[in-house]
Structures are given as structure tokens and as C-alpha cells.
Predict the 3D structure of the following.
Amino acid sequence: MFVMQVASECALVAQAGGLGDVVFGLSRELELRGNAVEIILPKYDCLRYDRIFGLTVAHQDLWVPWYDNAIHCTVFFGFVEGRKCFFIEPHSPERFFERGHVYGSVDDIDRFAFFSKAALEFMLKSGKRPDIIHCHDWQTALVPILLYEMYQHVGMHEQRVCYTIHNFSHQGIADEHILWATGLRNPARFYHHERLHDDFDPAKLNLMKGGIVYSNFVTTVSPTHAREVTYSDLGRGLGHTLHVHRDKFGGVLNGVDYEVWNPEVDPWIARAYGPDSVEDKYVNKGALRDRFFLRHDYKPIIAYVGRLDGQKGVHLIHHAIFYALDRGAQFVLLGSSPDPTISAHFWHLKHHLNDHPDVHLELQFNAELAHLVYAGSDLFVMPSMFEPCGLAQLIALKYGTVPIVRASGGLADTIIDRDHGWAYDEHRNGYVFHNADNPGLESAMDRAIGLWHGHPQDFRHLMLNGMRTDRSWARPGQDYLNIYEHIRHK
Ligand code: ADP
């Protein structure tokens, strides 16, 4: 099968969040399974050019219709760790992708609408006819719309679209001008409640809504999140549309890149270890304590690694620190926040706890250090308010660090409570609580710390269950292939 990913991010070269990991990880898995995969990306000025191998011009003169004119583009080709990537560079006064960032310009709608149009134009003109076009989030939601409304009539009638939504908070709310820019010259058709018309602002178009309506299949990043966005306010107003289209909507969990996150081969930790040498994990515990000036004592270390953001349950993270200390555990936090209020709060906390021998707050983003924190801790807390999929708990599992999570989205799908789980013993891998409040969190922390102290053999058993769980891209890769096959024959 020939799959074309059209995306605004790809890990290693242009990444702002999980979207980039999915584009890269899924593409590699699909290729390993014998499929042809290519990726189309904007040629941002801030691409990591040092990660692109053999960058050459693939298409010198691509003219992309835009309003009543056309914008001249050059398309480049290069390998990103073996993945085949095309990069579209427009030459126009707007300098769409020369902004020093991936997102964050006032004209982001125009930038990515142009990119979506250019990606289709590139496929059309270069004769690329993938079986499946896989696009992601609002940035490329116009791809299925333009394909169905325009490009299928000029030679692309066999292509099918899978559309993955990673984040419902940003839906691409656009004005009418975007129709004129992209050549969809019939506003009445698109300002229709069953197509792109925004359900809340009558003057606006909602690109993500259009992506859902026009795609052959729509996914989000976990089965539980798929239910949450359809039947709760987590869909940010798209619940009705998702309900209408429920027969072509589902959740597929993201995988973890075990080439990066694997304690058996991790260059960033003090001592490699795996399920058969789990005692070596404690060398890392010692190294983590040395690194963070924690005392060496017979105590479990509880960790948090992640953004400090309302979504992540910052008030519960705060409480977890003090509750851990109360219960005789140690706590390490590696996190940062762009929000000045949250950041100030944690800096204040850091100063307050500075001389405490059982706690360390590291307020920065440090990808290398994260490896040692996962490897050196016993427990990992993730009390998210909502979590579409979540990667950190999956990494923690692989490192034998037992997760304590709130039952939300992908956390509910991947962490099975040791005491109250519905699954067989070997699938139980952590602690889960439901209520997003202090008693809820405490109930799970109590049980986890209690097991660590009182039943070390059982605790080790729980660690090993997690380490043996396969959360690679193998399973999600197959899930996506099944979806592609399903829509290909429609
Ligand atoms: P989200 O995508 O919502 O931020 P995920 O759990 O899906 O949350 O993924 C977060 C990823 O980012 C994990 O790999 C985590 O280790 C990493 N990460 C987040 N904050 C930091 C930080 N301050 N330092 C190092 N790595 C971090």
C-alpha cells in the first residue's frame, strides 16, 4: 500500500508535540511492514536541517493556485532517519514558513490552508497517487475537503483519507476568505451545518469539523478519548458532529519509540537494565539521588515528568509532592510551564523546599535528564484532568516505574489498576483513581506506597508486568493498516 502523510510536524525535524511522534513512528512501522510511505511537510526555516539527509530539489516549479493567482513553490526531498520526506517551499511575499516557529503566527489559518492546497497540487502534478492520504489536526483538515470537492474531479478519484485528531482544543476557526483563497468558490455550500459551518459562531468556518465530515475515517489517539470527545465537553463543541459520523470514528493508541525509550539500550542512564536484570535499575536510583542531592535512604522515589499545565492537574501534582513527603517517600519533578502564574508557583515551591533532602524540583525542559528520572524512580504520578493518549505513562512502564494515574483518555486505556483492575493479573500494571481531587489521588498513592514498603516482591511483580507490556508501534501500526484496508475498498 502507498500511504502519504500530510502533516505540519514530524519528529526530529519539526516538532511541537505528540503529532510529530505519530507521523514519524507510524510511518516507520508502516514501512517495516512493507508499505511505501512518504511524508509531505512545510519547509519551515526552523527545520532541523542537520537531521535531514541528502536534501535535493524534487520539483522545481510547482504553481499552487491561491486566490486569483498562483504561488510559485519549490519542493525538496530528503531523508529523515530513513523516512522519505518532501518539503514545500513557497516563494511569496507572505513568507508563510519563514517565521522561526512552527505555530504561533496571526495568519496560521492561511499558512496551513496554503500548505494543504500545495500538498494536493504537488501530488496531482507529480503524478503521485497514494492509496491513502493520512492527515492530522486542523492544519491539514482542508486536504479531504479539497480532495473531495476539487481534486477527485481532475484525476485523484481513488485516494482515500484517514484523518487523525490529536488535539480538539485547536480546531482551525476560519473566515470566508479561506474559501476564496483555496478555490472553494461556493460559500453557501460550505457555510452549511452539515459541512464546515461552525456550530457556535455563525460567521465562521470550522476546518476540523470539515475534516471530520469529508474524511473516509477519523481517529483520535485513544479509544477512551474517542468516547470522551463524542459524549462530553472534551470535544469542545464537536461532539454532535462526531456522533453523527460515529460509524467512521474510533480511537487508536499511539505507540512508543523503543529505539529512544528502552532501558536496555539507553545511553542517557547510569546502568542499562531490563526485565531480566531489574536489580540494575537501583544503580540508576542511586545516580538520580546523587544528581538531585537527595539522601540515600530506604524510601520509594515518586516522579513527575511533563508540562506543568492545567490539563496535567497541577494542583494535584502540587498535592502529590507534600503527600509523598508525609508518607515517607521522596519526590522528583522535571517540568516546565510557559504559563507565568504556574511557573511562578513552582519556582516558589522550589525555593521553599530547596534544602529538603527528600524532594527535588527541576524546572526546565531537559530530554536527556528525563531518561534518568524515568529509570531512577519507583513510581510515576500523572493526575491529568484529561489526557488524549499520554506518552509519559507508557515510557514509565517500560522503565519499570509504576504509574499512578487518573482514569482519563489514554491513561484509562493503558494503566490497569493492580487492586481493582478488570484484567488478568499479568495485565495489571499500576494504580488508577477517578476523582480529580486530593482524596482520589491519596487513595491511589497510599496503595502504591503501601505495596512498595509492605510487599516488595509483589511490587516487583507489578514492575515486571509493566516492563513486559508491548507499547511499541507494532499494534497501532496494524490498527491503522486495518483502517486503511477498510476504507480503501469502499
Ligand atoms: P503531552 O504531549 O501532553 O505534553 P505526553 O505524556 O503525551 O504529554 O508526552 C510528553 C513527553 O514530553 C514525554 O516524552 C515526556 O518525557 C516529555 N517531557 C515533557 N516535559 C518534559 C521536561 N520538562 N523535560 C523533559 N521531557 C519532558
Remarks:
- The CA atoms of residues 51 and 81 lie 7 Å apart.
- The mean pLDDT is 97.
- The two ends are 15 Å apart (CA to CA).
